[in-house]
Each structure stands twice: as structure tokens, then as C-alpha cells.
Amino acid sequence: MQAADDADQVLFHKVHKGKKLIENMLSEHKAISWLDCALHCQRYVDGFCAGFNYKSTMNGNEVNCQLTVAQQQRDGVIEAKTKNDWAFYQRQYIKEPCSPSPCADERHGKCVVNSDGTAVSCKCFEKYEGNRCEIRIFDDPNFNFALNKPTSQKTYPNVGWKAVDGNSNPAWSSGSCTQTQPLITDPQWWRVDLGEEIPVSRVVITNRNVAGARLGNFAIKIGNSLDNDGLSNPTCAGDNLSVPTGQTKTFVCTPWIRGQYLVVQSHVNDLLTLCEVEVYAYTMKMIV
């Protein structure tokens, strides 16, 4: 059990299966659970409660929670004398039981303290496994990792999201195609942050149904670096890619490329326009 106590945390753990205390008691209570008994100990104000004795079953008006000043001795024997079948919980102060966390990353799992308060472990979130939740499971080849993820682009960054809104309509009038600033004479780029490292297997891009030549020569960059705006990351499917006007085309990364950022880098001295960009992962388990 953990509970706030000034600047520290309090942890109770079961150290002894024993019997009913007959000395060193502070008070006795009826408790509905060992957690309830622990709260009695933590909140005791007439002395220092070093631990408590708890019995999970009780008869009639029998008390089942005993607070005690007893400390655990060096040889591991509890000082308090006992009688009958109870369990003794010792109080410990620690700054933070989950620091450092047993999880590889707080986005992968949550640190939990077991019911006896004797250990911590990492409870994995969905799509993660392993003792430290360090293994990411990619099991859906049709899941679009780019959908509604944060985007940016060299110019007009506030409209980059239109390329990941789930609408692949190639008509400009649909309001779902992005573009960079017009009358630009240097090549433009567009980038999506996938939120985590993905083993990217394929990228699907939809071009506008007019002025399609603007997407006539580009590269796809994938990786974890934002140096040079992500343009120095590895290239997927070649360096001179194109999508026909008004069409959707799939680009396969062979082999798959691991990365959090995907950049569409235009080689054309004109604005860059994209109606949809979809990113799919290779089906696998990956240590992250």
C-alpha cells in the first residue's frame, strides 16, 4: 500500500505470518480489509505506528486489526508476541516506490505495487509486452499510423494536418489537400510525427486531381532524427518518386525502415501539395 505522508511515501509489506498480538499494541480496530487496517496505522496520532497485525476473518465483535509499535529485528523476527492465525505488516518509508520505474517507458506501461506491498512491477498497456514492457507489438498491417498525427511543413505549417485527416479526396474543393506557400522557387517538404518508432513497411500517397506535376519528383524520408528537418533520415523506395495526377500510389520500403518521423521531400521548385499520406507498419514484435 502507498499513501502520502509528508514528503515521503509509506509502504506496508507483509513480513510475517503470525498470531494475535498480546503486547506492544497501540490500539485495536475492526477493519474490512488489510488496506483499511493500514489506513488506521498511517493515521494513528497518539504514537508511532510501526506496523499492524491483520486477520482476514473475524467472528462477531472480534477485532481483526491491531496497531503496534513493534519493529522488525535484524534477524527478521518480529518483537511482538503472537497468538492465533494473523499476518503482520511492517511499515517502511521510501521516497518513491516506482522511482526508478520498472517500465522501459511510461508510455508503454504503468508501475504497480503488488497487493502485499512487497514488490513493484510494470503493467503493460495494449500492444506492449515483456517484463519492462519493452516489446512493441505490431499486428495490424492495415492500421494507418499517420492518421490525425501532428504535422509540419516548410511553409504554411498550419495546414499540414489536411494530409492526415483520413480524407483522400483529390479535389482541392474538398478542403482536404494541403499545400505549401505559392511562388516558392526552392523545394518544399512536409513531415508527420508518428508519435513513436514504427517499422514502416509502406507509405500511401494521394495526389491532387489538378497540377499533379507538383508531386512529380520527391523522396520519402523515415527516421528518428529531426536534424536538417528530418531530411537526412533514410530514404524509402527510391529518391525520384512520383504520383500520377488525381491518383493514389503505394510505396514499399524494402527493407522496412524504423522511425518516428516521415518526411515527403519535394525535388520540384514549386509548392508541395498532398491530399493524403498513410503510413503502415511491418507486422512484427520490436524492442523499443
From TrEMBL:
UniProt-recorded Gene Ontology molecular function terms: fucose binding; metal ion binding
Keyword Flavoprotein: no
Intrachain disulfide bonds: 124-133
A GO biological process held by the record: regulation of complement activation, lectin pathway
InterPro entries hit by this protein: BG_Antigen-Binding_Lectin, EGF, FTP1, Galactose-bd-like_sf, Pan_app
Pfam family, one: F5_F8_type_C_2
UniProt keyword annotations, A-Z: Calcium, Disulfide bond, EGF-like domain, Lectin, Metal-binding
Subunit annotation: Homotrimer.
Family: Belongs to the fucolectin family.
Its biological purpose: Acts as a defensive agent. Recognizes blood group fucosylated oligosaccharides including A, B, H and Lewis B-type antigens. Does not recognize Lewis A antigen and has low affinity for monovalent haptens.
Protein name listed in UniProt: Partial
Organism whose genome encodes this protein: Paramuricea clavata
Record lineage: Eukaryota, Metazoa, Cnidaria, Anthozoa, Octocorallia
